[in-house]
Design a protein that fits this description.
Elements: E1 8-14, E2 19-25, H1 27-37, H2 41-58, E3 66-73, E4 80-85, E5 89-94, H3 111-115, E6 118-125, E7 131-137, H4 144-155, E8 159-167, E9 173-183, H5 189-200, H6 206-212, H7 216-224, E10 229-236, E11 238-239, H8 245-254, H9 256-265, E12 269-272, E13 279-282, H10 284-295
Parallel strand pairs: 5-11
Antiparallel strand pairs: 1-2, 1-10, 2-9, 3-4, 3-6, 4-5, 6-7, 8-9, 12-13
The protein binds zinc ion.
Length: 296
């Protein structure tokens, strides 16, 4: 069998255009996030599901537009953040990446417990310069249900979503994927029934499907095979952060003279990007140069 396994996003329609679907394979990018943030299994599952969800939602954005999802829960993770765009780029972090919890009664990583109760917030920064945030209460903390609830209450789009991350015993990500089906205006009752039937008929979780499929085509076929579907777009997906040493320097300069004097006392500084955990080191000489700019 051909082996063509890398992260991708496919977008299409199904049942004579009555619904839009998006499927993302995110195994590699969730594994990269896990390695960067050294997340525990339950934190990997929460972050991986949210990053996958952000990519699914962001698939309908345009150009440079960006979308941020924040899980503002009171559970031990202390909040999870993911930012995605329509190019398939995503980044994210968990406030408390080392949290460990017992498995839930189904023997699965207890993401709901780890997230807790709170808000599901989606912010969009659109190309016309507009930014807006919409917040709905978390309904389950398992993230897929929360995404569906958000789409229905905030954007009036009936949808179905699956998000899954399978973590190995050695903490590595074996598979991660997501599916979003959104009904388009005028979708028939028969269309809704067919989609429900198809999803009910899946014999494996979506993360297991990602593990066992040898290509994106196979993942999509397994998820949507019983529905007549068309593929309209395919694009690569990956972990991508927008930080750089120049951006961090600009942040330091913006502290101004007073803020900077504290940093100078230590004769060196190390700044860490929340989103990708990249460490940026500044020695005394660099700090003095930046300080001169901050004074201006
Ligand atoms: Zn970064």
């Amino acid at each position: 069998m051909p082996n063509d396994r890398h992260d991708e996003i496919w977008v299409g329609t199904l049942l004579q255009g009555e619904a839009r679907w998006v499927v993302a394979r995110t195994t590699d990018l969730v594994e990269e996030a896990r390695k960067r943030h050294q997340t525990s299994p339950v934190a990997t599952a929460a972050l991986g599901r949210l990053m996958t969800g952000a990519l699914l939602l962001a698939s309908s954005l345009k150009g440079e537009e960006e979308l941020t999802i924040r899980l503002l829960g009171d559970g031990p993770l202390g909040g999870v953040v993911a930012v995605g765009n329509a190019q398939g780029e995503v980044r994210g972090y968990v406030h408390e990446p080392f949290v460990e919890l017992p498995l839930n009664e189904k023997g699965k990583l207890d993401v709901a417990q780890a997230v807790g109760q709170g808000e599901f917030a989606v912010s969009k920064s659109l190309k016309n310069g507009e930014n807006y945030t919409s917040m709905v209460p978390l309904v389950s903390g398992e993230i897929a249900e929360d995404l569906v609830h958000y789409l229905l209450t905030s954007e009036q789009i009936p949808s179905a979503a699956l998000l899954g991350v399978l973590v190995e015993r050695d903490f590595q990500v074996a598979g991660a994927a997501g599916l979003l089906i959104q009904l388009l205006p005028g979708a028939s009752e028969a269309c809704i029934e067919k989609i429900e039937e198809q999803l009910k008929g899946l014999t494996q979780g979506i993360s297991k499907i990602a593990v066992e499929s040898s290509s994106m085509e196979e993942i999509v076929q397994t998820l949507l095979g019983g529905l007549s579907y068309q593929v309209l777009e395919k694009r690569p997906a990956g972990f991508h952060c927008t930080c750089s040493k120049e951006r961090i320097e600009a942040t330091l300069i913006s502290l101004g003279q007073e803020g900077f004097e504290e940093i100078l006392e230590d004769q060196q500084a190390e700044l860490i990007c929340h989103f990708c955990n990249e460490h940026y080191h500044f020695d005394e000489k660099e700090l003095i140069e930046l300080y001169e700019q901050a004074k201006k």
